């Protein structure tokens, strides 16, 4: 990676994180859950996790993860299952209702921030293409593929 890539990423993150409040509120409203619970659900989409791993993945401490999982389990969104590799341990996985809730989160579309008014239609199409390539690379990396490196 280059220093320029780091600069672009920092600018993107600053814009995105500055404008997350409305999206988080919309997600919480859609699920009728605190946003932190939605974050726990979304971490379980790819695979079940143990409690410590889930706490680490959601950047919360173990007691908070336990409280969140207890709440989500009461609501029928997750279940604790015996870990087949360590029968003394449990993993947390989504129920069908939990998967449906996560699918609903994917449909929550906040309005673009006001800063996007600086982009003309061609700029928006170029940005959409760039983000699509980055998204495909992220999906490939998550599936274990080697990262694609741009030339130039």
From TrEMBL:
> PANTHER family, per this entry?
MARR-FAMILY TRANSCRIPTIONAL REGULATOR, TRANSCRIPTIONAL REGULATOR, MARR FAMILY
What are the residue boundaries of the HTH marR-type domain, all occurrences included?
1-136
The source's superkingdom equals: Bacteria
Checking SMART domains in the record gives: HTH_MARR
- Pfam families assigned to the protein according to its UniProt record, in alphabetical order: MarR_2
Q: Which GO terms of type biological process are on file?
A: response to stress
Give the species: Subtercola lobariae
Q: What is this protein called?
A: Transcriptional regulator
């Amino acid at each position: 990676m280059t220093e320029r890539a780091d600069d672009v990423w920092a600018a993107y993150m600053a814009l995105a994180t500055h404008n997350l409040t409305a999206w988080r509120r919309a997600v919480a409203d859609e699920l009728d859950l605190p946003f932190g619970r939605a974050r726990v659900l979304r971490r379980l989409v790819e695979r079940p996790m143990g409690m410590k791993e889930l706490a680490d993945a959601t950047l919360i401490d173990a007691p908070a993860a336990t409280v969140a999982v207890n709440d989500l389990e009461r609501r029928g969104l997750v279940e604790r299952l015996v870990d087949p590799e360590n029968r003394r341990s449990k993993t947390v996985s989504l129920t069908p209702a939990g998967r449906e809730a996560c699918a609903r989160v994917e449909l929550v579309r906040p309005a673009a921030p006001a800063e996007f008014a600086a982009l003309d239609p061609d700029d928006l199409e170029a940005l959409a293409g760039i983000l699509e390539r980055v998204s495909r690379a992220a999906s490939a990396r998550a599936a274990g593929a080697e990262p694609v490196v741009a030339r130039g």
